[in-house]
Write a structure and sequence with these properties.
It comes from Thecamonas trahens ATCC 50062. With about 450 residues, the protein is α/β, with parallel strands linked by helices. Helix content is about 50%, strand content about 5%. A hairpin with a 5-residue loop joins β5 and β6. About 30% of the residues are buried.
Length: about 450
Amino acid sequence: MESDYAVMVKRRLALGNLMPRIRTAYRKGEIDAETVRHLTLASKAQQKDWLALFADPEQYAPRGFQLKQWLFGGQSIPTSAALFPVEDYPGQIVADLFGEDAYFADADLFWQKQNEAIAAKRDALLEAGWAEVVVLEPGQYFHSWEHEKTPKTKGGKVFIAVSHRGEVEVHEGWLSRKEVRRAAKKAASADADGDATEAATVARPEATKAMQNYLDLHRHAVVRLALVAHPGVALRLMVAHAVASSGHWQVEPEPQQAGSDAIAESVANSPAQQAFDAERQAVLALLDRPDYHHSVTQPGYDAYPTAVVFAKLLALSDDDVLRIAACVMAETMAAGSAVVEAVGNHLGVDAGQHWQPDDAFFDMIRDKAVLNAMLAEVAGKRCADANVAEKAKTQKKIIRDCLDGANGRAKVEGWLPGWLAFPVRAYTENGSLKTADEWARVRNLFDAA
């Protein structure tokens, strides 16, 4: 505890750091003690700016708490909020000589260091065996009444809450009430079946339904384009469909039903879709068939059209027949199926040759953990860690800046998200991704091949 003498010395030093006009106004009672205290945090330039406002009757000179906000650009962050060692902060720390308060002068630099410390905390918790660590956005509160305490062994999560002032709170061992009910229902079902009940992490979809629809259609587009270039594979696949009567072998084309106008526009403008449409027109010309339905395959019940096509095929070369067969197989292959995954992986499809990230792709990403993992791919783990608590909008902006080479960031060429790669790569260990599930069903068939 400081002596009265030491406190008096600090106050005199603080007042001595103020410009004479401020000290005079304080002695005359024109400025209150709280305002003077905050002015001891100001640089000489800031004191001059404040005095200009104070002297102008038409301007408002901020006082008290508003003055502290004015001095720190609207965000005064005390050193007590740091999750990292304060000595690791390379910027200036401003101390109030009237008291014990100290603040980070550079809020952006503080948040960079704080986010890196939060990311390290997250990684340590995951290594400690927690199923999931959720980093909330700054200012987003953790409401315990909406959750139930759940131990690590039963799939409990950790929530890291960050205030606008930088304070960090770690809430270990919680699940939302909805997740608890879902887990209880699953356990009851297992008991009813006579199976041993084990604690299991509640899986949540890694991608939204809209994103899954987007991925299914884009993956379908690039795989069937690849199929056109491999008629031998397409012919064998066609025979398999005929034997097993699976997918769209009725016969009808894949409808490519988009869940929104944005997805429909994205797929229609994709290079893979446009290249396939051009090949389809060439095949229609070979068959001398009009493009009534924008497809080579046109379902019907009358045998006469089939006989007409058969007669035409008899007059064509083997190469032309194989070309038509490949196009028909590609056209009837079901989007979002294990068949797309099997063909794409067998042919080593590189979706990056026919796809570029567009607005529809970024607009549908909802999972922040996924987004942070993508940021690590394009900008490196350090950048991702430094922005782990930032809003999704901010992280998306950094990714796009890296891809475009904008705002001083080095341009990243050829980035392909794991969701569109063959084989597909998920971004979270405990999340579910329909595409990955489809590939898992058939992967062993091709690993041995």
